[in-house]
Amino acid sequence: MRRVHVIVDGEVQGVGYRYTMQLVAREAGAAGWVRNRRDGTVEAEVEGTPGQVDEVLAWMASGPPGAQVSSAAVTDTEPTGARGFEVRGTA
Predict the structure, then answer these.
(1) For the segment 21-38, what is each residue's pLDDT rounded down to a tens digit?
(2) In what order do the strands lie in the sheet with 68-77?
(3) Out of 3.30.70.270, 1.10.443.10, 3.30.70.100, 3.40.50.150, which CATH number does the structure's domain 2-79 have?
(4) pLDDT grade for 91, boundaries at 50, 70 and 90
(5) Which of these is catalytic: 26, 36, 38, 88?
């Protein structure tokens, strides 16, 4: 299992990024969460097999139509055994 913490910067709020990411993660079979941050970035943690995580990370690099991702900082972290994928409130 692999778990990553990701901060996505660019035009990523107000374009459906979080809710589309939830669909993408669920379709990939990945677990975790996503939320907006007050600084205009999107923060997420994604957990699953390396292939599942890579699938979600590949989508995160471009996001949904209307998003303009300028960077995605990815940090590996310890898997927690999480299940399901949720959209959280703003941090």
Answers:
(1) 999 999 999 999 999 999
(2) 68-77, 2-11, 42-48, 31-36, 85-87
(3) 3.30.70.100
(4) confident
(5) 36
